[in-house]
Write a structure and sequence with these properties.
This protein has 558 residues and is α/β, with parallel strands linked by helices. The chain has 21 helices and 26 strands. The longest helix has 22 residues.
Length: 558
């Protein structure tokens, strides 16, 4: 952590009705979940559709490192800072997944004075959205096996079922399982589990534009193949209606608050290394309608989350950011420059300069999308003035401003310089939709779309498709899915498919081991290298330090 301060959330939180009133939402337009959490009602969402949209600010980061970057913390600090300088702002974030909370990451609601609250409830069960998504996913799995059990008249081949089950927990033992054992329990076959945030149902919820679109997308989910190779969908199985019913409340965005009092919509949570990594389109649109600025983030580094935010979410929804913020730290750049983690406390300007190549690559990539960029230097205790000055100078040489931010310790007051810079950049971008340049056109073949991302953003010399991936891409195109965008699934820690390669490599070949069709979500997933859709727990999981105290308070989440 950047410092040592203790937050008493109970003393700082306001009733959620007061937070809603700041953006013109009355108490009758809320579905309360206790004193500090509420869902926006369908009526208020319908009313927001006619409001003029504010300016969208995308917060992203360099490739993540063990030193930490603080992207969520910076997103919250920036939202608080914009409100402090008189710019009406709403924050839009993803919901935390229980897998990382109990696994490697711990809580995911920001930190210090720049966090959203109530932290314990948001990090754990929250409003039950993820449980609903898991239930809808597993209902479809049960109906698939039920169709096989009773003799499926749609021709579904038990050997070609692709729909797995889901649970919101890191559990490597469930990656591959055998089901239907025991003679009378259905077709015996191999299957497995994905983590809920990797579920296509999660992606569908986050990209759907209203109830009708949600139902249509759910119906298009491909669950397997017939013996002749034709696709069988959730609609064919007859599951889409019931799945939509299970998601009836989960589709409504959740309203909470930052410690600085900024209204914050927290909704949806697909992972950016195996899905598109953005909060829901519904929540983003609501934030834009409620504020002069909407500040949102995309998962992991800009090569994953921001790329998919732009090439998938913006393509699908018509949204376009007015400016982008790239978060970096002195510590992370030193790691990128080759310094060992246990030596990060020693000032090393040369290592900062060496590691800057990673930040420079992300600046160049976002400029290539047509986005104005500003860099947020998330300050940590132990950073030297010389190291911070080196980043500022290097950013200036790349045509961007960099601002030292102390929001972790100081809240919005520590990010006011960043807020002024962001507001100026966003207002100078008078037509962000026209300025936005996507990486590839809709009509480009799927293989060429994958190659375009690999070469333009990762700086690969080429891609190499496995024979199975090549065959599947040809099938997807023959079935009419060639117009879909691609969702790159790879390690977040490197521009390559090898997490150990840091900095800004180029000229490598990117392996594409397999591809998956997410027809409901509306993209084709390209799995590059060793990518697990069900993570495992680390040797010492965060769960070991999380506990329930005698006073009923949960500890160890921050």
């Amino acid at each position: 952590m950047p410092g040592d301060i203790e937050i008493s959330q109970a003393a700082t939180l306001e009733p959620i009705q007061q937070i809603a009133a700041r953006v013109g939402i009355g108490p009758d337009a809320l579905e309360p979940y206790g004193r500090y959490i509420a869902k926006l009602s369908r009526e208020v969402l319908a009313g927001l559709a006619d409001r003029p949209a504010g300016r969208l600010i995308l917060v992203t980061a360099i490739n993540p490192t063990a030193a930490g970057e603080g992207k969520t913390t910076t997103t919250i600090g920036l939202g608080d800072a914009l409100n402090r300088i008189g710019r009406k702002t709403v924050i839009a974030l993803r919901e935390p997944s229980l897998g990382p909370v109990f696994g490697r990451k711990g809580g995911a609601t920001g930190g210090g004075q720049a966090q959203v609250a109530p932290m314990e409830r948001i990090n754990l069960h929250f409003t039950g959205d993820f449980h609903a998504i898991g239930a809808a996913h597993n209902l479809l799995a049960a109906m698939v096996d039920n169709a096989l059990y009773w003799g499926d008249d749609r021709g579904l081949d038990a050997r070609r079922v692709t729909w797995r089950r889901a649970v919101d927990m890191n559990d490597r033992a469930l990656r591959q399982v055998a089901i239907g054992l025991g003679g009378t329990n259905g077709a015996a076959r191999e299957s497995g589990f994905d983590i809920t945030v990797a579920s296509e149902v999660m992606a569908v919820l986050c990209l759907a534009e209203g109830p009708d679109d949600l139902a249509a997308r759910l119906a298009r989910i491909v669950v397997g193949r017939r013996r002749d190779g034709g696709a069988v969908t959730a609609g064919d199985i007859g599951a889409a209606g019931a799945m939509a019913a299970l998601l009836g409340e989960a589709v409504l965005p959740n309203l909470v608050q930052s410690l600085g009092g900024t209204p914050t919509l927290v909704h949806g949570g697909p992972f950016a290394n195996i899905a598109h990594g953005c909060n829901s389109v519904t929540a983003t649109r609501a934030a834009l309608a409620l504020g002069e600025f909407a500040v949102t983030e995309a998962g992991f580094g800009a090569d994953l989350g921001a790329e998919k935010f732009l090439n998938i979410k913006c393509r699908s929804s018509g949204l376009a950011p007015s400016a982008a913020v790239i978060v970096a730290t002195v510590r992370a750049l030193k790691l990128q420059g080759g310094v060992a983690k246990d030596a990060l406390g020693t000032g090393d300007v040369a290592a900062v300069r060496a590691g800057f190549v990673n930040l420079a690559r992300h600046i160049e990539n976002l400029h290539g999308f047509g986005l104005p960029v500003v860099v947020a230097i998330n300050a940590f205790h132990g950073d030297t003035a010389e190291e911070q000055a080196a980043i500022i100078d290097l950013c200036a040489a790349h045509g961007v401003e960099a601002h030292i931010c102390t929001h972790w310790a100081d809240g919005g007051a520590g990010a006011e310089g960043l807020a002024h810079a962001v507001a100026a950049l966003a207002e100078a971008n008078t037509d962000p939709g026209r300025a936005l340049k996507l990486t590839y056109a809709d009509d480009l073949p799927l293989e060429q779309k994958i190659r375009a991302v690999a070469q333009s953003l990762y700086r690969a010399s080429d891609i190499v498709l496995s024979p199975t991936a090549r065959k599947d891409l040809a099938r997807f195109e023959a079935e009419g899915h060639g117009h879909l965008p691609v969702c790159m699934a790879k390690t977040p820690y490197s521009f390559t498919a090898d997490e150990k390669v840091s900095g800004a490599p180029q000229g490598f070949v990117l392996p594409v081991d397999s591809v998956r069709l997410s027809a409901g979500a509306g993209f084709v997933v390209a799995l590059c290298g060793a990518v697990n859709t069900m993570p495992g727990l680390p040797r010492v999981p965060s769960a070991e330090r999380i506990a329930l105290g005698t006073n009923g308070r949960i500890t160890g989440l921050d």
